[in-house]
Amino acid sequence: MNSTHAKTADEQTAPDEKAVRERAVAEARSTGTTLGPEFHTGQGPWLRTADGTAWFDGTSGSGAATLGHQHPAVVAAATVQLGKLVHTGCKLGSDARAELVRRLGELSPYRTPAVLPTVTGAEAVESALKIARAATGKRAVVGFTHGYHGKTAGALGLTWRAEFKAYSALDPDAVVTADLPELRDAVGPEERAAFLAGLEAALDRADALGGTAAVVLEPIQVTEGLLIVPPTLLDAIARAAHARGALLVLDEIYTGLGRAGRLFTAELMTETPDLTLVGKTLGNGFPIGAVVGERAVLDALPAGVQTSTFSGSPVSCAAAVAVLETVVAEELPARARVLGARLAEDLARLAKTYPWLSRVRTAGALAAVDCVRAGRPDPALAGAVREAALRGRLLLFGGGPEGATLKIVPPALLTESEYHVLVAGLTEAFGAADRQPADGAGEGRR
Prior knowledge:
Strand content: 15-25%
Strand order of the largest sheet: 4-12-11-10-7-5-6
CATH superfamily of the largest domain: Type I PLP-dependent aspartate aminotransferase-like (Major domain)
Structural class: alpha/beta
């Protein structure tokens, strides 16, 4: 018998505990990755797996990597900050935080700006609601059909200290939803009049629920399929809100800082939003958001009512300063407008080949097109396009109220060759989806 200890039958059959733990652990399906493989590195519009396989990111990391993945100026700024100071907590300042506040405020459309840093866009939304309630002394809020402003709620319901809740507790009966007109096409005079009448009725309902504190909307409803609110309609909404003593809160978390072709949508408006929310592009992958507005409005919220441990994180703030410098130096809004014009032209050309591609829409480095068959939105066809794109290693998201919209959200700083890769991938995906039988019959979808 050799000297090695002979394992008992139980030892031989006992599972490796570490392996069991690794098999048992999984990310919750609510947040788990649902598109593509696990990525290892990134550069510009490209994401690569551990074996080096490249995928074109037509989602820009949920719209945040507007400058492209691993932008060298942003990475360098964050790396330097990592070597100096990583964390202070929200109640201790840092030079990186002060610089971010200064730079963002200077770029904003406000005369005497103030900036409230947040960790996420949803936190910026919740902060804005608190500010609106503090500034107006009112409670109710008006939002719009197809709006998207985040997925957080309820934490303050479990928080003990009453003064933290004074401007929160957004009960369902304090929220009124107004209908927007059909935004895929031009809004005609009759539609506009009907919308404004509906908005006034919604404001009446909100006023009856404790007064209207805020009217909140996205200038472009990106999540629901790139539904663009015309600037003249934004101005009309602002005037209606102000007539009720409410604040207009413009959620530019997706569209702001150049992504949609302007630093701020306020550039296209006659009225100025009372509060503007930014995020996504601001960090180019680092977690950060902000509420920006006139100091007198933001400072209506008492000290200490809105804080979170990682708001104003030195690393995220340093990265954001580099983003803002790059946005200005690279003339990002203008480049995004050029990209959008090219996408509009190429998508319109493809729609002539595939007539089921309907209602091409672009706004800066944002594009969308609906899949419509026999006059009806076709979510299955949109899914077939996304699946074909995935097989070609092009990452795309869907959307739209009916789930029949394809969203194209590449980084705004594409090279010529990268742009051609994107269009070639779209062309291939449309062709592959078109060749699939419709409802199990026929040879194509035309």
